[in-house]
Amino acid sequence: GAGVSQSPSNKVTEKGKDVELRCDPISGHTALYWYRQSLGQGLEFLIYFQGNSAPDKSGLPSDRFSAERTGGSVSTLTIQRTQQEDSAVYLCASDRDSEIPQYFGPGTRLLVL
Amino acid sequence: QKEVEQNSGPLSVPEGAIASLNCTYSDRGSQSFFWYRQYSGKSPELIMFIYSNGDKEDGRFTAQLNKASQYVSLLIRDSQPSDSATYLCAVNLPYRSNAGGTSYGKLTFGQGTILTVHP
User: Fold this and answer.
1) I need a surface site. Which of A90, B25, B79, B83 has the fewest CB within 10 A?
2) Which of A23, A50, A104, A108 to mutate to test the interface with B (most CBs of B within 10 A)?
3) Per-residue confidence band for B1, with pLDDT thresholds at 50, 70 and 90
4) Phi/psi of residue B48, each to 5°?
5) Cβ of A100 under 8 Å from any chain B Cβ?
6) In this predicted model, what pLDDT tens digit does every residue of B36-69 receive, in sequence order?
């Protein structure tokens, strides 16, 4: 079946612009995670959804970052007023109902110039 | 001290040998422990998880956990060139929100160990 999909696959933006990253989890998966991976930083947790609610959003780096999930399915990560340090690969993962990010999407490579 | 520490390597082993990957963690409250494999340019994939002290085997992979020593390892037997990848250790800590709820959805990852298996 289809895996986790993310769009866009690559995004280049100018500093100060807003960006939206989209994640489509595997159908029926209630748990959804956002992580980011940058050189020298490893994989960094951002937020975890169970259904449409986010029990843990402790990893969001600043109030420029927000995420929502609607219909227990698609999630959008929004970064406002992007900064160069936001450049990274943003990864989404989902799982049926456990609290383990088991299935990762291909990621969105964000470059802020 | 980093929450999860791994030797960055690279670790180089000959084909057919046992590759041993190590990870230490700082928080004794850690509940669950995970190993992910990440090929260059690809996303991580979960290969093993372990909750209890001792060994857990799955095919050529064995995860070992020692909570007293705060140490988790991954052994790969009969290593193959296709095992060449970065191996990420991750631990799971409970998160207690201000509202009083507890969730376990956050994993803290180590920096990863690069493994190269040469023919």
Assistant:
1) B83
2) A104
3) low
4) -155, 150
5) yes
6) 999 999 999 999 999 999 999 999 999 999 999 9
